[in-house]
């Protein structure tokens, strides 16, 4: 997604930072001033300016904590504004996560704030850089999971390790997706779990780290410590702690608790990027899917549903994910209500759509809303349109009922 992101003070319109993604030239300062000026002019006349579209672009404004205004300018994909509003909310939450709500809501020294808020740049770029994401949690407001038969055994390792760390909050991540987590970790809000997963994906590989984080809902003003340890490449265990133990103390415990589980970890890693058990066999026309549980705020996504490549695989994995994300944005907010939409009530959607599909020359997509689950499936163009409904229903049933997929 090519986009300009602009952050300004909501009172005086002083630019804080700009971020550009894609092959775009930075916006000139007069354009930034005009974008902010029209928003402030509307406010002064008791008009709430939310968004506007041009021939080839869309602009969305949003004010946070009466302190900062975020503006995003991007191509118009005809999707509901909720998706760009969701992105702006994630950017603000990313600033709270790494900087804290108190200092964000009460900017006293603008120049100092400009310098200090740069700590969030890497995470904000990750949120904007949707084309390079291997996950969909940023879009669905549900944290990505990886479902494996090994998870039930590895849960014992995690519980023992978090107990040694004197913390009820811990999880095991594989390529930014949660394999297992403690009961208290699952009580975090969806945006906190998604942000922490995005944070892990945005960081360079490291054997261990100790990062102060403010949880946007649970603790926006008092920081926790996020301790992470790389068990094997692309597999990290994460723990949220208070002042103790120290990173060095917990580093000494990693080998003692996890050494005997390394074979299980390697087996778990091999399931990526399929992300669900090999024991489940799906229709050969399926090229990928997104499965979301709106109650547990978990989602399972796969663009490699078959162990062996098929002659039907005419679309590569990256393009499959792009199509699934585009289909999700096309459907959600337009036909199906979004569960975390503060600006649009469900009553505004007057019809009760339960299913939708699209058909193109290169692929087909089908979605079913079956509370609390939503499933979005990408098919080859060869599948008969009339067959998609029954295949999608069967796929949903297979995934939801499997004992290894806790979604």
From TrEMBL:
Domain (FUZ/MON1/HPS1 first Longin): residue spans on this chain: 4-127
Domain of life of the source: Eukaryota
Signal peptide (from-to): none
Pfam families with a match to the protein in the record: Fuz_longin_1 (PF19036), Fuz_longin_2 (PF19037), Fuz_longin_3 (PF19038)
Keyword terms of this UniProt record: Cytoplasm, Cytoskeleton
InterPro entries noted in UniProt: FUZ/MON1/HPS1_longin_1, FUZ/MON1/HPS1_longin_2, FUZ/MON1/HPS1_longin_3, Fuzzy
Major subcellular site: cytoplasm
GO biological process, one term: non-motile cilium assembly
Domain FUZ/MON1/HPS1 second Longin, first and last residues per copy: 166-259
Stretches assigned to the FUZ/MON1/HPS1 third Longin domain: 285-402
GO CC list: cytoskeleton
Subcellular location: Cytoplasm, Cytoskeleton
Family named by the database record: Belongs to the fuzzy family.
Full protein name: Fuzzy
Organism: Potamilus streckersoni
């Amino acid at each position: 997604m090519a986009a300009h992101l602009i952050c300004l003070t909501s009172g005086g319109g002083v630019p804080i930072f700009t971020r550009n993604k894609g092959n775009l030239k930075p916006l000139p300062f007069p354009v930034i001033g005009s974008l902010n000026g029209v928003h402030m002019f509307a406010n002064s006349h008791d008009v709430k300016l939310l968004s506007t579209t041009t021939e080839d672009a869309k602009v969305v404004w949003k004010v946070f904590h009466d302190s900062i205004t975020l503006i995003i300018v991007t191509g118009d994909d005809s999707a509901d504004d909720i998706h760009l509003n969701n992105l702006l909310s994630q950017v603000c939450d990313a600033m709270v996560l790494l900087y804290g709500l108190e200092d964000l809501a009460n900017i006293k020294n603008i120049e100092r704030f400009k310098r200090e808020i740069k700590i969030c740049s890497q995470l904000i770029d990750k949120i904007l850089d949707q084309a390079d994401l291997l996950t969909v949690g940023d879009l669905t407001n549900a944290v990505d999971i990886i479902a494996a038969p090994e998870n039930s055994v590895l849960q014992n390792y995690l519980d023992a390790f978090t107990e040694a760390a004197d913390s009820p909050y811990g999880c095991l991540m594989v390529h930014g997706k949660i394999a297992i987590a403690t009961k208290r970790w699952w009580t975090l809000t969806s945006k906190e779990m998604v942000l922490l997963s995005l944070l892990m994906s945005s960081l360079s590989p490291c054997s261990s780290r100790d990062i102060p984080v403010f949880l946007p809902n649970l603790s926006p003003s008092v920081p926790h410590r996020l301790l992470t340890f790389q068990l094997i490449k692309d597999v990290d265990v994460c723990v949220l702690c208070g002042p103790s133990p120290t990173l060095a103390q917990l580093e000494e415990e990693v080998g003692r608790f996890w050494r005997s589980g390394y074979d299980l970890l390697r087996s778990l890693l091999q399931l990526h990027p399929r992300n669900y058990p090999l024991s489940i066999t799906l229709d050969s026309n399926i090229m990928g899917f997104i499965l979301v549980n709106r109650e547990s705020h978990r989602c399972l996504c796969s663009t490699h549903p078959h162990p062996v490549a098929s002659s039907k695989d005419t679309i590569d994995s990256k393009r499959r994910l792009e199509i699934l994300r585009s289909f999700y944005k096309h459907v959600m907010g337009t036909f199906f209500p979004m569960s975390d939409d503060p600006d649009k009530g469900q009553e505004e959607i007057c019809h009760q759509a339960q299913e939708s599909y699209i058909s193109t020359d290169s692929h087909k997509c089908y979605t079913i809303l079956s509370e609390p689950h939503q499933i979005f499936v990408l098919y080859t163009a060869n599948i008969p349109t009339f067959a998609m409904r029954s295949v999608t229903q069967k796929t949903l049933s297979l995934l939801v009922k499997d004992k290894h997929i806790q979604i």
